[in-house]
Amino acid sequence: MLAALFDNPAAMIMLVGALVGIASTLVGTFLVLRGNSMLSDAIGHAIVFGIVIVWLVTHQQSGPLQLLGAALTGLLTVVLTELLVSTRRVKQDAAIGLVFPVLFSIGVLLLNLYARDVHIDTHTVLLGEIGFVWLDTVTLGEYRVPQALLSMGAMTLLNAAFVGCFFKELKLATFDEGLARALGLAPGLLFHGLLLLTSGTAVAAFDAVGAVLFVAFVIVPPATAYLLTDRLWLMFVYGILVSILSSISGYVLAVAWDVSIGGMMAVMTGAFLLVAFLAGPRYGVVAQWFRRRGQRRLNEIRTLAVHLYNHEGSPEQHEENVTRALREHLLWDDAKARRVVARSREQALIERNGEALHLTPGGRELAREILEPGRRQVGDGGHD
Length: 384
Prior knowledge:
This protein is mostly helical. It has helices at residues 2-6, 9-34, 38-58, 64-86, 92-114, 122-127, 147-165, 167-175, 177-182, 187-206, 210-228, 232-257, 261-279, 285-311, 317-320, 323-329, 334-346, 361-371, 373-383, and strands spanning 137-140, 143-146, 350-353, 356-359.
């Protein structure tokens, strides 16, 4: 069973893509909520510098030292960014835009100067090629297992363990950093630990999907989940589902259209984001349009009830509480007046007797609720 799974290139590609997405979502959710999501872009580019430095010192192209070196480069990116921000002369977005191009450029120059004949290049680091992950295998017991599957599986478990162990602390530090600091939770240390894992995930991912596409997995699934729910644990669930579905659908479409697999996976995360943006149950454009339309209709019904209530029992009632008077006093055209009257009658708020409009007890109570709450509050205050 396992041998058949490991020998199936399509299954390995989709599984590695899903693991990249899951590991990235676990750390990216907090970055999105903190408004620091673009740090993942900075880290994804700056790790080139760390990879080159480690190779120059150890001549190792992969392994724990490469992982550690690149992860520390990610922290260096954050530290340099914070130093620039602390001067109060540069805002965070500008600081990020200053730091990571410098580190990335230095890494590229060092590659061209000292590592021309070594299989480390910027194309591999930035774009990767997930379609070949099933060819780079290691022996694990009786099975030949893709190396990317092991590295991304390890990072997924490590990220999950970190989030699981410090979930409450990370949640508090994300939404109320001042309170977290007052309670002695060291939010700064938690944040740097999160960025260290983000850097490690970027290094583990760049052989599979590349640093640029890794950024898409860090930002887009959590952002999609953010449009769907206000609950943090559900954000993780939705983000992981988006990552898995993007990996599967991205592979299928890439094979069908003969395009980049990693690129199509990233495109599919954007497609899910678009769906959430348009059709999300609470923050989607369609849902908001329906809510605004419902509120507008409710306001029109309330306006009609107040108009009829104000003139009820007055000498001019027979002239004001008729459909034709709504065009003059409420500036409604005939079609709109008929629609509002019809909806009000459906809700049993008004009755119609020829041209005359009369409030029902329910409509009269609605008008009183709109006009009299301030009077009741003043009266209550007088009794105190």
